[in-house]
Amino acid sequence: MNVLTKKSEFRGGKLSTGSALPAPGRIRHEGQRTIRAGFIPLVDAAVLIAAAEFGFAQREGITLELVKDVSWANVRDRLAFRQFDIAHMLSPMPVAARLGLGSNPSPTIAPFSLGRGGNAITLSTRIYGLMEEEGRLGGAADPLRNARALEAVVRSAAAAGKPPLTLGVTYPFSSHNYELRYWLAAGGIDPDRDVKLVVVPPPMTSDALSAGAIDGFCVGAPWNMIASERGVGRIVATKQDIWPSAPEKVIGMRPEWAEAKPDTVSRLIVALDRAARWSDVPENRARLAEVLAEDRHLGAPVDIIRRVLAGEFTIDPEGNRRVVENYFVFHAGFANFPRPSQALWIYSQMVRWGQTTLSREGFEASVSAYRPDLYRGALGKDALPADADSGSLEGATDGDRFIDGHVFDPGRIEDYIKSFTVFGKDGVQTPVDDV
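The structure assignment produced for this chain is given below.
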């Protein structure tokens, strides 16, 4: 029997912890609104950076103090220890925190998504050469065929007694981990038995690939293109290939901070919403790329950032190119709405790969991590998608399909997980250590 059956149990974010923002006119004075925000040097921090650099936060009476960090574990800990007020976070991090997973799982909520897209999977040129031999790819294979060609390489290496491939992800509870696993499994590779997964901070992935410390990685922009431009990697799949609507980064904050500063939270969401709208306008992308390229932000070549924002990829050292439409979506299609159904998809992946177990308590904790009530309180009902108050299916519409054709029904998580043939090793995920 299915453990979880009622979609209505997360309708309208009712399982969320804390209270919604007070109505206008009843907000208490909160004093100076300086917000210290941690971020990792990735293009998907663009909305947060744009809010600080192009005046959107200032117009709401907020001073955004940006602090560049080096790893997701650092961001997690500095938010928990109150060195940050808010943080650029991986979309699964608040869910993991609510479930009590990982090191220092301090309560965290996400009232705002920073958009969709930006990830890709890159393999070393050596491994891709073997894939071409095994899979007869001809240089123009689709992402699923790439995964199946890699499966042939993995099987050949195992038969020859060679050690498994080492692939990098940025954090155990990350979209990168789950997307890489999903892609591998779709190609017939068991991520827990057939390869070795390790944690590599985003800015170090290209160097690690070049040094031979890893054979591939899944990471956010611009680091995939930097690896291909350096001639050390081949991009074999993007986030859009795996699931276009997959949640990527969010704004994370401590629930008690949000409850103590409801007006500040509301103003912040308004500022981020305006920054997201601005960042989505093609005519603004050149200015955005210049700011992102600065050393205090990403410290990456501005030309690469411009092309990444446009979805124009150099996928290999030979200069072959691919254009991915809507590779970055910062606002369109309600990209900033924190969907409870997406929090539950993240939970399903944690269960599938043995990071946690399926339970009513886990269901409710996962939903409570995303706070559509705070988003609604700041922007009003007109800013919400039509299905905001229901448990929408994920991957069920054209243009938003999963790579393997599965559809996620948040009311039938157990059936969804059982529909796969590849699961975590003995119910416990062991290859990726939390750091």
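Interim note for the steering committee: Residues 262-280 form the longest helix (19 residues). DSSP finds 18 helices and 14 strands in the chain.
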